[in-house]
Design a protein that fits this description.
This protein is an alpha+beta fold and 346 residues long. It is built from 9 helices and 20 strands. Helix 5 packs across helix 6. The chain is globular. The structure holds uridine-diphosphate-2(N-acetylglucosaminyl) butyric acid.
Length: 346
């Protein structure tokens, strides 16, 4: 096992921030991953785990060891009477994996096409788009549990229930840094049913008959490409805030004050109706769309996306995020929660 000193992470974070790791290692197997953590522990240095770097704000050079998970491999394990069980290594690119499932006649993930990042990072924030979430398709997840009272590292298999998936949330977010995902097992229903609950996707595919999974995949790619910036061209981490979920009375008073408020019914909690507000709309209405402070700004086609026009840094980005949060709180009384994780954790 060999680490590299002073390693640039510019191409390993989707904002493209010019930041470096004190020591860096790419790990291609569970064994080397374990050695890397043992090494960091033996030197009492902090460690950070990177997947695709597409849901992170790295705002300072990272001290200690940065571990880039490159554990690869994808295979159909078996088919039960109802599902195909598929294993994928944490380092595989998510979008290429979605393509592979379609190529292998295992449709179901097409609504999640073109989401940046790796398969290992996907369950952490329960990636979701166009009416689907990865949590629906999880069978179990192999992890290295790094936080034990006796300081021992342990391999664990977390079931879907253990993962506690919710909107953009999971057990991994409750315990940042504790679990390192090495492999994901998905359970993809054998009976395919198109998911067209997102109105724009239904509109894009309404003229196609018969409608095939690949048609939905292509429509999702088109919609995303029209609305969301390609991180290779313009640094970003997708949605920067969660869509806030509010109770019915908050929703009703906001709707009265702002009749054009964009919102969707959300899951009920303890029998109480909840509403998801479109954070992009709130930010847009406050005049931030296309707003720019130096090289950091708000994307001009989707106000929920913050972008780096080239030479911005993480500190400036977090300042703009705070400005937006304060404005939204002042105008609507609603708190916006940041979606990407800050590194180092602050
Ligand atoms: N809107 C505006 N102005 C904007 C942006 C949005 O008025 O600048 C309003 C529009 O009415 C629009 C509505 O907000 O119809 C919702 O916007 P959109 O359909 O783009 O979805 P979103 O709620 O902003 C969420 C996810 C996206 C996902 C899309 C589609 C979150 C935090 N974001 O965005 O996920 O692709 O739905 O399902 O839930 C990501 O996580 O990186 C991401 C892109």
């Amino acid at each position: 096992m060999r680490t590299l000193p002073n390693f640039s992470l510019k191409s390993l974070n989707s904002f493209g921030f010019d930041i470096s790791a004190e020591e860096y290692i790419a790990v291609a197997s569970s064994d080397v991953l374990r050695q890397a953590i043992d090494y960091a522990k033996s030197k009492s240095m902090p460690w950070y785990v990177l997947g695709g770097g597409s849901n992170l704000v790295i705002h300072e050079n990272l001290p200690g060891l940065t571990i880039h998970v490159h554990i690869m491999g994808k295979k159909l394990v078996t088919k039960t009477s109802s599902h195909a069980l598929v294993d994928v290594g944490a380092g595989e690119n998510w979008h290429e994996f979605v393509q592979w499932t379609l190529d292998n006649n295992l449709p179901g993930l097409e609504n999640l096409a073109l989401i940046p990042g790796t398969c290992g990072a996907a369950p952490i924030q329960n990636i979701g788009a166009y009416g689907s979430e990865i949590g629906q398709f999880i069978d179990s997840i192999e992890v290295l549990d790094t936080q034990q009272d006796d300081d021992e590292l342990r391999w664990q298999t977390l079931t879907k229930a253990d993962c506690q998936f919710k909107y953009r949330h999971s057990v991994f977010k409750d315990h940042p840094g504790r679990y390192i995902v090495t492999q994901v097992r998905l359970a993809i229903p054998l009976e395919w049913c198109p998911n067209l609950q997102y109105a724009e996707l239904a509109k894009h595919t309404s003229n196609i008959s018969p409608l095939l999974p690949l048609d939905i995949f292509e429509a999702v790619c088109k919609i995303r490409q029209a609305k969301l910036p390609d991180p290779k061209v313009l640094g970003n981490a997708g949605s920067f805030f969660h869509n806030p979920v509010v109770d019915e009375s908050t929703y009703l008073s906001l709707k009265e004050k702002f009749p054009n408020l964009v919102s969707f019914p959300s899951q009920t909690v303890n029998g109480q109706a909840q509403f998801k507000l479109a954070a992009g709309w709130l930010i847009d209405q406050c005049g931030f769309k296309g707003y720019r402070q130096g090289d950091i700004g708000v994307y001009d086609k989707q106000a929920l996306v913050l972008v780096n026009h080239g030479h911005g840094n993480g500190k400036e980005l977090l300042q703009l995020a705070t400005l937006i949060q304060e404005k939204i709180h002042a105008v609507y009384g609603v708190d916006l929660t940041q979606e990407p994780m800050n590194l180092p954790t602050s």
